[in-house]
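Hi R.,

Here's the chain you asked about this morning:
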Amino acid sequence: MKKIIIILAFLLAFQNGSAQLFTNEKVANNIDNIDQKRLSWGYFLGFNQYDFKFNYNEDLKDILVDDSFGFHLGLVGDMRINDFMNLRLEPGVFFTTRNLRYDESYFNGTEFNDADLLREVKSTYIHVPLLLKISTKRINNFKPFILGGFSTALNLSSNQDNPDDNSSGEFRMKKGTFFYELGFGIDLYLLYFKFTPSIRAIFAFNDEIIRDTDPNSPWTGNIAKMQTRGVFINFTFQ
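And the predicted structure, written out as tokens:
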């Protein structure tokens, strides 16, 4: 259902902007000089899909992460460097849920039930990236770009300070995470504002898992490293 909503959002944006986008002339109004401003502002909203990359101590079956979409929104601060490069700060709030599914082999020799094979990991991130946007020359009413940079995130739902661990049903993560990010998109110059759909991938640097008290815990004992990765679909308005 959420995938259908994303497709419909893209189609709606295309329908509203296509008449202006492919005309032989640029949109003639105040939007023409937005790229010449030293500082500009906006906001974004969109969808996200978070995942985990696992490294293991022993060769057991992979921990599976169910696909699910989350929602996010935030603000944009853009500083023009020159005609082709911009420095962007995009703080936002991101909501997501990841379901981890363990194979029965993780519980070899110990009693377990169906609930032990599933861990729901809900996360609310305050995500702050600093990005360099590199654009082509504007072509009529659109301008493609790539971007990349670094970010940090504070996970408000990490359970880091919770004394209970997986033996009590609590999966714990570290509060702070650092990422590098890569993406691409296109600026669409509409009649009254600039609309920018974009796709961005993020990859964590640090290990995020907090291990259970028991070093042989079936939930954390075989995990050498757990790192977030994800994909963002953003719709930005400036």
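Residues 2-21 form the longest helix (20 residues).

Let me know if you need anything else.
M.
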